[in-house]
Every structure is written in structure tokens, then in C-alpha cells.
Specification:
With about 220 residues, the protein is α/β, with parallel strands linked by helices. The chain has eight helices and eight strands. The chain has one domain: Rossmann fold, CATH 3.40.50.300. An eight-stranded mixed beta sheet has the order 4-3-2-5-1-6-7-8, with helices on both faces. The structure holds adenosine-5'-triphosphate and magnesium ion. The site of magnesium ion (MG) has 5 residues, from α1.
């Protein structure tokens, strides 16, 4: 089973948005997808609850007493995590996945929080890269703003403990398409292509990475 973790301890960075869009993307590709809502806030669960029956099904898994019940036959498991995950809970989440995506919003507060979090992440025992592959995604970006340029610069210069660059996949713009899709239990991949052309293009590098062995830990 392929497990993709969406994590950033900073609240509102776009974890649930990224998690639900990835879940729907793989479901539309014919995969058996389970979306694990590990957040008591329940955003992913709410999204699944309003998802139309006519769309490709996505299973729901909820965290109960620290354990997840994953439906049999799941090919792709997407884990949406709560804000504030650190310490032991962080290690536990990391140990359950092969791939982690960290969405980050373009603001000085979010960048500073990301710096602190990455310091903690990289100080964990063992080489992160051998056990889990991590990539960043800039989210809710207002293009041509100073904040966007600063975030892009920051994300382009993060080094992993092994000295290699932490992959920075893409910038997702701030768009009502995400809000509209979320409202209806859908993803941008399920809205009219003519209206979401630009968003789909922005997702391409991330989807290519997820579909390649580059997002899987070294054997
Ligand atoms: N690219 C985007 N464009 C427009 N709105 C967005 C985008 N990404 C996220 N949002 C909106 O920003 C808000 C926060 O996003 P989201 O709930 O995905 O963050 P989160 O990291 O899951 O938050 P939490 O830490 O509370 O779980 C939501 O209202 C969501 O619809
Ligand atoms: Mg969330």
C-alpha cells in the first residue's frame, strides 16, 4: 500500500485541501483510495460526507485511540493530519508513510514556523531521506507579490540533512476553485477543465513526482 502523508504543524497551511485533491486525483485514475482523517476537526471527513455518490468512491478512515482501520484492498492511503503535530506524534506519522507533502502558505509567520518545524524534522534519528521522501508545496499563493517571491526563494534553498536540496514541487495559487470544489466534496480535477486549466497545470509537477519512484524511499 502506498501511503502519502500531508503534514505541516502550522494551522491553515492547506493540508486538508492538498489531501482531498490528491485523494480525488488517484480515485479518478481508477485507484482504490482511502483518505485517513487524523484530525478531530474532521475537514476531510466532512469533505467525504458531501462527496456525490456519482463520483469515484474514496474510503474514509478515522483515527481512533491512535490507530487507523484501513479498508482492505486500499492501494493508496492519504493521511490528512491535524495542526500542531510534533515530537512523538510526528515520529509516529512519519513511520507510517513513504512520502510526505508539506504545504506552506506565503507569509513570514508561516515561513518561520516552517523553519522551526524542519529543524525538528531533520533532527530526528535516522536519515529522513532513506525512510520517507519529503517535498514542499507553496499554497494559496498570490502571484507577483513579495510574499510569494520570498516563499519561493526560501523553498528553493532548503537543504536536507544529507546536503541535497529538499524538493520543492510547485506553487498552487489562491483560487476560488479550491473553495468551490471543497464545498461539494470534489477536487479541482473534477471541475470543468476550462475553468481549472491553470490549477491543473500547477499540480502537474507534484503529480509527476508522486507517480515516480523519486517520491519513494531508497530501498
Ligand atoms: N490554494 C487555495 N486557494 C484558496 N483557498 C485555499 C487554498 N488552499 C486552502 N484554501 C482554504 O484555506 C483554508 C485552510 O485550508 P485547509 O483547511 O486545507 O488547511 P489545513 O492545513 O488543513 O488547516 P488545519 O491546520 O486547520 O487542518 C480553507 O478554508 C481552504 O478552503
Ligand atoms: Mg485540515
Amino acid at each position: 500500500m502506498r501511503t502519502i502523508l500531508v503534514l505541516n504543524p502550522k494551522g491553515g497551511s492547506g493540508k486538508s485541501t492538498v489531501a482531498t485533491n490528491i485523494a480525488s486525483y488517484f480515485a479518478t485514475q481508477g485507484k482504490k483510495v482511502t483518505l485517513a482523517d487524523c484530525d478531530p476537526q474532521g475537514s476531510s471527513q466532512d469533505w467525504l460526507a458531501v462527496r456525490p455518490e456519482s463520483r469515484e468512491p474514496i474510503n474514509c478512515a478515522v483515527l481512533k485511540k491512535d490507530s487507523l482501520e484501513i479498508p482492505k484492498g486500499t492501494e493508496i492511503l492519504i493521511m490528512d493530519t491535524p495542526a500542531g503535530v510534533t515530537d512523538k506524534r510526528l515520529s509516529k506519522f512519519l513511520s507510517q508513510a513513504q512520502t510526505m507533502i508539506m504545504p506552506i502558505v506565503a507569509s513570514p509567520i508561516d515561513i518561520r514556523a516552517a523553519e522551526r518545524f524542519l529543524d525538528e524534522l531533520f533532527s530526528l534519528k535516522g536519515s529522513i531521506n532513506n525512510k520517507i521522501k519529503i517535498a514542499t508545496v507553496a499554497n494559496r499563493v498570490r502571484e507577483d507579490t513579495l510574499a510569494a517571491a520570498k516563499l519561493e526563494h526560501y523553498l528553493n534553498h532548503i537543504k536536507l540533512p544529507n546536503g541535497k536540496k529538499l524538493p520543492f514541487m510547485t506553487m498552487l495559487r489562491a483560487s476560488q476553485n479550491y473553495i468551490r470544489a471543497a464545498e461539494n466534496g470534489l477536487s479541482i480535477f473534477e471541475l470543468a477543465p476550462s475553468k481549472t486549466y491553470y490549477d491543473r497545470e500547477q499540480w502537474e509537477p507534484l503529480l509527476r513526482w508522486l507517480n515516480s519512484s523519486r517520491s519513494l524511499p531508497n530501498k
